[in-house]
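Hey,
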Amino acid sequence: MSRRPVLVLGAGGFIGRRVVAALAASGWVPIAASRHIDRMVLPEAAERVRVDATDARALAPLVEAAAAVVSCIAGADQHIEPGGRALLEVSARVRAPPRVVYLSSMAVYGTASGVVDEDSPLAGDLGAYGAAKAAVDRAAAQFPFVVRLRPGIVYGPGSPWWSDRIARLLVRRRLGDLGSAGVGLCNLVHVEDVAVAVLRSLQTAAAGGEAINLGSPDPPTWNEYFRAYARALRAEPVRRITAAALRREVMLYGPALRLAELALGRRNPWRARPALRPWLVRLCRHDQRMLVGKAERILGMRWTPLDVGLSETASWFLGDARHIADRTPAR
């Protein structure tokens, strides 16, 4: 399959960039597509194309020319469902549809508690993002040429939420051991494992038409994740966050910091102090375990050990000049 073109939608995002790099390193020709492609830092081997993925007419010639398509579209909730449906519509019209790998999310399982596998209902009831991903996932299930990958919490160097923001909160002692508020399961998956799963989904005939969970077979609790990441960041001792302190973060500081983020962007003088969002606190209590045996059976997945992944991620965070201001813990 070497030197065959693969269209990557959402190529400028955290996961999209890793997928483009993995394709280039494996001998494919990645066609990196995004509405803002000129701003993206991508491998030299990648071809670039500017496209609005919600525009089926603009998307059609790109899909027709591709040997395969990978959709990593995330971003604004209102773009996820139109973009997903446009891709399915265009791909279904091609005489020999390309293999399509759609990056769905564990968010499709919504508020379900306990064990979930690929046959569990797609409630998508944890917010607009989960609802949009669930809608596309359900629509894609009817097409045998589509592989639906459902990653959990995707961390690793460059992860804006689960590695960068969490690190900022940990080193400033605004996040730590949450007690009973942090006993939910953190279904982590390293970004490189997601990229490997994408490559294998392109190459494995048996993956066609399947939904496949991606995550740790033995996920830590959120408290365990925070403690392990703080240790890798050299941000110990981990602070015990009381219920009262958590309420202050979410109800008092959070809204003000979030407003500054939205209004001031990169000019925000409190940029090193990100808001702790209410949905993250709810997620830390959520007891949901994704089964990932299907990924191991069909794609041959072997997962990055958490200590290895966190060591690499912490090195990235501490070595990035943008984070120098964050290294001094708040007193």
